[in-house]
Structures are given as structure tokens and as C-alpha cells.
Amino acid sequence: MLEKSKEHWVWVILVLLLLFFAGLRIVQVSRSSREEPKTIQSSSSSKTKNSSTLEEETPDQRNYRKAKLKLEHPYTEASQEAKQSVIESVNTAVDAIIKAKSLSEVKATYENHLAMSQGGMIQTFAMAILVNRYQYQSSQLEVMKSDNDDVVQVIIPLVKDGEEKCYFIANFNTTVKQLQLTSYIGGRIGGTYG
Questions:
Q1: How far is Cα 97 from Cα 130, in angstroms, rounded to an integer?
Q2: pLDDT tens track for 140-179
Q3: E strand or H helix that includes residue 20
Q4: Which pLDDT score is estimated for 192?
Q5: How many domains does the chain have?
Q6: Is 146 exposed, middle or buried (0-12, 13-18, 19+ CB in 10 A)?
Q7: What is the pTM of this model?
């Protein structure tokens, strides 16, 4: 009989422990569900504060950032002498494109400083200027250092009223004074190269 009473108490203790742990779990779940809305509210209010202080990036800003990131040293400007040489060469290249009047007449020559550029990129650059009427502004040109001593990297911005800017990225060899158009970002050019 003593064994039956021991066995009975063991079962009672096990059931009580089970009920105790189940009660603890219920209390824990109910407390965490009450705290969650507070957490969600505070995080959503902080998101609102952050979004009101930060402006959304415009397409021009995004394209400019992408163009800068294509450079080897996007925040290290080249010398003023190199910049002046690049401006003169880009001006000559743009003038040659404008004088050509049609895309088929635009060729890579040493005189127009495009001898190092591939034909497809030259055609795309010419298409932006001749067909899509983008304008080159030398005051917005950026010239940055590169990993090579005789090369600087260039961002050539083209602008058009009512359209997003187009940024052509180029390498410029300071020894032979030639541009190598490598890619473009932004704008509505209709080109598929770059």
C-alpha cells in the first residue's frame, strides 16, 4: 500500500510540474505579445523620422553615383594641367561630331582625339549629341586620377532639357592626348553599346 501511495504522489507531482510549466509558458507568450506592438510602434516612428530627414535619390543623382563608382579613384582629382588638356580634347571631339552631321560620318581619328575609342562607343556618343540633342558642358567635366601615371579618368556629362543627364566615362591618355570612351550611364540615347 505504501508503494501505491508513493506512485500516486509521483503522478500528482508530475502533473503539477507539467501544469506549472504550461502556466509559465502561457504567461511568457502573453507578455511578449503585449510588448511587440510597442516595439513595432517605436521602430515605425523612427523609420518615419529617418525618411523625413533623408531625401530619395533622383535618377540624376543615382546615375552620377554609378558613374563615379566606375572610376578607379572617384574622389581624387587630377592636376589642373591634365584637366585643361582633357577639356581641349573633348571640345575637339564634340566639335568633330557636330561637324560630321550624321552618325556614319563620325570616325575615330587622331585629330578628333577618339583614336583609342571603339567604334560602337563613338557611335553611341555621337548618337547622344547628333540624334538625341544632348549638350556637352565643359564646366561640368570631371577629371580624376587613375592607377596609371599617363592616364586620367573622365566623366563627360551631357545634358538635355526635360531629360535625365547622361554620363560618359572615358580614359584619357595624357601622353598621346587621346580619349577612350568606355561606357555611359543614364540618359535616353537609344544606344546599346557601353
A1: 8
A2: 999 999 999 999 999 999 999 999 999 999 999 999 999 9
A3: helix 2-53
A4: 52
A5: 2
A6: middle
A7: 0.69
Residue 156 domain flag = yes
H-type helices in 54-153, by residue range?
59-69, 80-100, 119-126
Angstrom CA distances, 67 to 74, 98, 190, stand at 9, 24, 18
Indicate if 17 and 90 belong to the same structural domain: no
Rounded distance between C-alpha atoms, residue 85 and residue 99, angstroms: 21
pLDDT for 26? 87
Q: Is the dihedral of CA 144, 94, 139, 161 positive or negative?
A: negative
Whether residue 165 sits in one domain with residue 130: yes
pLDDT digits (tens, 9 = 90+) for 30-77: 777 665 554 444 444 445 445 545 789 899 999 999 999 999 999 999
Instruction: At 4, list the grid cell.
Output: 501505491
Residues 35 and 65 in one domain: no
Range(s) of the domain holding residue 151:
59-186
